[in-house]
Design brief:
heterodimer, A: about 70 residues, two-stranded antiparallel sheet, B: about 950 residues, 4 domains
Chain lengths: ~70, ~950
């Protein structure tokens, strides 16, 4: 019971971090005309954040399928 | 680098490989494969080895979210708006973090109440209303049917593009094909057959459609693989990786410097919000996420696996879009077709065919699930209410289950044919092409009443009706009608100038709100009116009895495992009537089986149809029916066979209050019983200790008597000899008398020690405490008993590091301890070259005295025993002299003055007895505050 409460708390934290990184004025920062590793910075940023969020979620709910 | 960049290679000499019959054959083989998978999964489920119980399959089935609109359309969006395709997938990713709250609760409610569609969910929440269910159904059909049409269009256009291989031919001309030559028509018919076969196996729609879900999960794999294959081909075959594509695009000016256009922050947010809502509220998503869910734990993997799927399927979207723009520069190939036309342009016929299959799988998956979801809604929330009204005047046939199945199958067929007709009618019209987000916006109207209803008890039926109507009307006005106008089906005037020339009412700049894209504009206004109406109309009156009952079931769904709402029914009913009623809808066998299960498993009762039914049984029957015909209809049907006394709102509130009080009481009770348990445990422990002490006392008594008896026996024996035998000579007589005196002394010592110990232990000992110099005590002890050691041939050494060592103690008692330790040492030191060391040491705030001998030492297991009464160390085989009380008394004395007496010994190397006493002059608190005399 207490463990699942902690899990839910962590998921809310992941949600808030996602909101901050994707839906705050911060999103304008990586939208630069330059390229990084030959790719648009924003493109790298978005996929990077996306992957981080997924990894964070997988970590939070780990080992709980059964 | 490939040579063909910048032009479209059309080589007519190439053999026409992908002939129409081949593509048709492959398409139907693929659909056949779907049938086979579904059949196999159903078979497995029947034998109890469910495929879809696997959380990965569940996550894959959720990916029915990615339709042909994703498959072909994402690339189109990327070509047009840069990064604009991503919010549709980032929104659901973020929303997934909240699924443990929202979706879990929806699943819990739907399982416990056998809710089978989103219309049923909303209708059930607000008091099981037919009207509300009907309204939700209409919104869903109007909003989503065109979306089905779009999928069929995608199938049709991709087919017509593919059969023109190796030419890149624009879609659009496919429309000119007559219906009977249009592959999409036959595919639609086959999909109808599939859906009817695997979507209506049971009448009970709350049962999972194992076969269908397995097929959907398979389709999700196919579309991901196909899109990835095209992506890999484009990125690594046509170009040298991501960077190379971007480089060329930049050179050609296709790469926008800013990926997010100016002022599109609203679009970014509203598209994300929209898709976050749609991923749960679209009828097909509700179907796979809630209705087909086979365990809440599946959500835990889906939470991250579904977003991962979305990420993977979008990985190659931008490279494909850029490559398409480069390859087809100036030719005017629709960016929505790049996924298919890129392989065609490079004569990759098998890749093109695979890509076509990917699109086909994306489209068919969506059509199948959406059709099941819509047909359930249409059947239960539009047709059933009508039938119920008819049966009021005209008795229905006894077995309605066949009729119902027929209706549901008919609904599937009708929905699909309507979708196909819309596609034929609309063609290339804007209203069809742009339907993706328009659909999303329509279903977003469910969000306030759904999410509000999960957490807010105050929402009423009229509030929900007002909210849905307001949102739906605003959606029609600001999005649907304008899309008709842009398709040329309506005069554009009202769009550009406003109705009757009133510019303030222009549909896409309502009340003068400009600067938003049409979707954000519509979302803002529709949700504003929707939420406003919901709150205002709900606040007009208190929820009535029905609404309060349902609100409790929904809002408190996670709180109690057994719904308390069963107690919210009063009336009389017969079990037999209920069984007969459910048998009419579910079939005789199914109904009997369900009731028998229920009685034996849930209630532990014998199945006795003669019994009057209690509230819980009526509730069970109603829920059972709800799975087949929807909750509102189930309520009406059950009401027709029972005599229900309607409860007033006050009574409902009373019962709910009572229930919550009972919950509070039971919580209190639980707390009390936990406290009691703790107290009992303490008592038990105390009792065990007492028993131990009692046992120790018995041991002590028997030890004391035993010790007393030994000297007594010898005194008696020698006295008797002296009395009975007068002829003993004097020397002998003297020896005997000496022994008697010695034994008497030992007896006296023993009795004194026992008394002493008893006094100390009971706290009645007399202590005369004062400042005592340890140095002086030690020297005195050496003077007194040093001789004893010398007599036994040992040597005594002492090392006293301080001038004086003042402690707070009783001098005589301390002397007693020292003498005891010294006599012990003398007793146990080595027989030859015996040696005893005394050491006084100052440590922080205390003095330590150590008495060390070089005897045999004390085995570890005996090191604690020697401090117990009458337990002497038994290292020597000879019986040592002593009472066995010396060490226990010494320890008591030292502890009385706040110190500790311990022993350290390695067998064979002697033993060190040491005690420590707090320093009286060190300023540290004197632990022994027992000053002066104590009684």
């Amino acid at each position: 019971m207490r463990r699942s409460k902690l899990m839910r708390q962590r998921l809310v934290a992941v949600f808030l971090i996602g909101m901050l990184l994707l839906f705050s004025p911060l999103i304008a920062l990586p939208d630069q005309p330059q390229l990084l590793f030959g790719l648009p910075v924003l493109y790298l940023y978005l996929f990077g954040v996306w992957m981080l969020l997924i990894a964070a979620m997988a970590w939070v709910v780990r080992g709980g399928d059964e | 680098m490939n040579e063909g960049i910048g032009h479209c290679p059309i080589d007519a000499r190439l053999q026409h490989m992908l002939s129409e019959p081949l593509v048709i054959t492959v398409s139907f083989l693929y659909l056949g494969l779907l049938f086979a998978i579904a059949y196999w999964a159903d078979r497995r489920a029947d034998s109890g080895r469910s495929v879809i119980a696997n959380p990965t399959v569940y996550a894959l089935s959720l990916a029915v979210y990615c339709t042909a609109w994703t498959y072909y359309g994402s690339v189109g969006r990327a070509a047009a708006t840069g990064i604009g395709f991503l919010p549709i997938y980032l929104g659901p990713t973020l929303a997934a973090t909240l699924w443990v709250f929202l979706l879990r609760k929806m699943v819990r409610i739907s399982k416990s109440q056998r809710i089978t569609s989103i219309a049923d969910f909303v209708s059930s929440r607000y008091g099981k209303s037919h009207l509300l269910g009907g309204l939700v159904t209409i919104i869903a059909v109007v909003g989503v049917l065109p979306y089905i049409a779009l999928q069929l269009k995608a199938i049709s256009s991709s087919f017509s593009i593919l059969i023109h291989y190796p030419e890149v031919m624009l879609p659009g001309s496919a429309i000119t094909l007559p219906v009977w030559q249009d592959t999409a028509f036959y595919i639609a018919l086959l999909l109808a057959a599939f859906t009817i076969l695997f979507g209506t196996r049971h009448l009970d729609a709350s049962e999972r459609h194992e076969g269908m879900v397995a097929a959907i999960a398979f389709e999700s794999i196919v579309k991901l693989m196909a899109l990835t294959a095209v992506g890999l081909f484009t990125t690594f075959w046509l170009y040298d990786g991501f960077g190379d594509v971007v480089y060329h695009a930049q050179q050609a000016g296709h790469l926008k410097t800013r990926l997010i256009p100016e002022g599109s922050a609203n679009t970014w947010f509203s598209f994300s919000l929209l898709s976050a809502l749609a991923v749960v509220l679209l009828p097909r998503q509700f179907q796979v996420a809630v209705v087909e869910n086979s365990g809440e734990n599946q959500l835990r993997r889906a939470i991250w696996l579904f977003p991962l799927y979305l990420l993977l399927i979008n990985l190659f979207v931008l490279p494909i879009a850029l490559a398409g723009q480069l390859q087809f520069a100036g030719i005017g190939v629709d960016a929505d077709t790049y996924v298919l036309t890129l392989p065609i342009a490079h004569q990759q016929q098998w890749l093109a065919l695979f890509s076509y299959l990917g699109g086909l799988s994306a489209a068919t998956g969506m059509v199948i699930v959406e059709t099941i979801a819509l047909s359930t809604m249409v059947c239960n929330d539009l047709v059933m209410p009508g039938l119920l009204r008819r049966w009021r005047y005209q008795a229905a046939s006894m077995d309605i289950s066949r009729t119902l199945l027929l209706i549901r199958r008919g609904a599937i067929f009708v929905v699909l044919m309507l979708g196909y007709s819309y596609f034929r009618l609309a063609g290339e019209a804007y209203a069809l092409v742009a339907i993706g987000l328009i659909s999303f916006t329509a279903v977003a109207q469910f969000a306030p009443v759904m999410i509000g209803g999960l957490y807010w008890r105050g929402g009423t039926r009229s509030g929900a009706l007002a909210a849905l109507s307001a949102g739906f009307l605003v959606w029609i006005y600001t999005l649907l009608l304008p899309s008709f106008a842009k398709s040329g089906w309506l005069a554009r005037d009202f769009l550009d100038l406003g109705p009757f020339g009133i510019t303030l009412l222009k549909p896409q700049a309502l009340f003068g709100l400009e600067g938003l894209d049409e979707i954000s504009h519509c979302l803002f206004w529709s949700l504003t009116f929707n939420i406003g109406a919901y709150l205002i109309v709900s606040s007009m009156r208190l929820p009535n009895a029905d609404e309060t009952t349902q609100a409790t079931r929904f809002v408190d769904a996670m709180k109690h495992s057994r719904p308390i709402a069963a107690s919210l029914w009063r009336g009389s009913a017969q079990v037999a009537d209920l069984i007969n009623l459910t048998a009419r809808f579910l079939g005789e066998d199914r109904a009997r089986e369900s009731f028998t299960d229920y009685f034996s498993n849930e209630r532990n009762l014998d199945d006795d149809a003669e019994l009057p039914a209690d509230a819980e049984t009526v509730e069970f029957a109603e829920t059972l029916l709800a799975g087949a015909i929807g909750s509102a209809s189930a309520r009406v049907m059950v009401a027709s066979v029972v005599q229900e006394e309607p409860l007033g709102l006050d009574e409902v509130m009373d019962i709910l209050d009572e229930a919550s009080q009972i919950r509070a009481y039971s919580y209190e009770l639980e707390k009390k019983s936990r406290e009691l348990e703790a107290a009992t445990a303490e008592l038990k422990a105390a009792n065990i200790k007492l028993l131990e002490l009692d046992h120790l006392k018995d041991d002590f008594m028997s030890s004391v008597t035993h010790e007393l008896r030994t000297p007594l026996t010898s005194i008696r024996a020698f006295s008797e000899i002296l009395r009975d035998d007068p002829k003993i000579d004097l020397a002998e007589r003297k020896r005997f008398l000496g022994i008697i005196v010695e034994e008497t002394e030992r007896l006296t010592r023993l009795v004194n020690q026992v008394l002493d110990l008893a006094k100390i232990e009971s706290g009645h000992a007399v202590w005369t405490s004062s400042e005592v110099d340890l140095v002086e005590v030690i020297r005195h002890a050496i003077d007194t008993s040093g001789q004893l050691i010398l007599d036994r041939g040992g040597k005594l050494h002492h090392r006293i590091a301080v001038e004086s060592a003042l402690v707070w103690a009783d001098r005589d008692r301390l002397m007693q301890v020292m003498l005891n330790l010294l006599s012990n040492a003398a007793k146990f030191m080595a027989k030859e070259a015996g040696r005893v060391d005394i050491e006084l040491r100052q440590e922080p705030a205390l003095y330590r005295v150590m008495v060390q001998d070089n005897g045999a030492g004390i085995p570890r297991e005996q090191q604690t025993i020697i401090f117990e009464k009458f337990r002497q160390g038994s290292t020597n085989s000879a019986h040592p002299m002593g009472t066995g009380l010396g060490l226990p008394i010494s320890r008591e004395i030292i502890e009385h003055f706040g110190g500790r007496l311990t022993v350290k010994s390695t067998p064979g190397k002697g033993a060190i007895f040491s005690f420590e006493l707090p320093c009286a002059t060190c300023g540290a608190a004197n632990p022994s505050e027992k000053t002066g005399q104590e009684a």
